[in-house]
TrEMBL record:
Species this protein is from: Levilactobacillus tujiorum
UniProt EC number: 2.7.4.25
Gene behind the chain: cmk
Protein name, UniProt field: Cytidylate kinase
Lipoprotein among keywords: no
Keyword Transferase tagged: yes
């Protein structure tokens, strides 16, 4: 049996990737972090010194690179061609530039195409901003995860500490709000809840509770 398509969308730091990974493992599904793909092209743009607003050059660069995932603990490894960028794509320079790259039509078209190919056979949990609305409009399960800004900033602070990144809480709060604003107001495929998505407010839920709830929803459909 090939398995369902599960779309998990929501704003920055709502816990999407953490629960998506748990759920994927439980059902033996593939996990695909689409944010990592936008981060990977952003990393490459910064690396090559291409101007963030040079859309033609950004697209050309994207056409030249492969973005691959490999299993790894505690996090999946991400590669741009043969370079591992797992940690580099989580650094503040990439985080703060990614919304400007992900707003570009050519970038979205190309990555949407790659994401559809990855999800084609089903048995996949894909997380991002526009999976339920645009990438996989026919996904059998669509979840929209939200949490208060304060809670998300606290979670990011903890995540960062584990990675050795030290950014003050107030800065994180500001960065999260800014990224949400940019991702929600862009013209193409903005962050938005699909009409048929199930909204889960995770502010006072544990990771395990959220994963269990999503697993229940999948079981009902499987
Ligand atoms: O999920 P993550 O925070 O890693 O995503 C990084 C950025 O990639 C988002 O802020 C957004 O600009 C972009 N993104 C997107 N569409 C997706 C996934 C991520 O535009 N499906």
């Amino acid at each position: 049996k090939r398995g369902l398509q599960v779309a998990i969308d929501g704003p920055a730091s709502a816990g999407k990737s953490t629960v998506a990974k748990i759920v994927a493992q439980r059902f033996h599904y593939i996990y695909c972090d689409t944010g990592a793909m936008y981060r990977a092209i952003t990393w490459k743009v910064l690396q090559e010194g291409v101007a963030l607003d040079d859309e033609a050059a950004v697209k050309q660069l994207l056409d030249q690179i492969t973005i691959r995932f490999e299993p790894g603990t505690p996090v999946q490894k991400v590669f741009v061609d043969d370079t591992e960028v797992t940690l580099a794509i989580r650094q503040p320079d990439v985080t703060n530039a990614v919304s400007q790259i992900s707003a570009q039509l050519a970038v979205r078209e190309e990555l949407t195409e790659r994401q559809r190919q990855i999800a084609e056979a089903g048995g996949i949990v894909m997380d991002g901003r526009d999976i339920g609305s645009t990438v996989l409009p026919h996904a059998e399960v669509k979840i929209f995860l939200v949490a208060s800004v304060e809670e998300r900033a606290q979670r990011r602070l903890k995540d960062n500490a584990a990675k050795g990144i030290q950014t003050p809480l107030a800065t994180l709060r500001h960065e999260i709000e800014e990224r949400d604003r940019k991702d929600s107001t862009r013209k193409i495929s903005p962050l938005t809840q699909a009409a048929d998505a199930i909204r889960l407010d995770t502010t006072s839920m544990s990771i395990q509770e959220v994963a269990d709830r999503i697993a229940e929803i999948i079981q009902e459909k499987e």
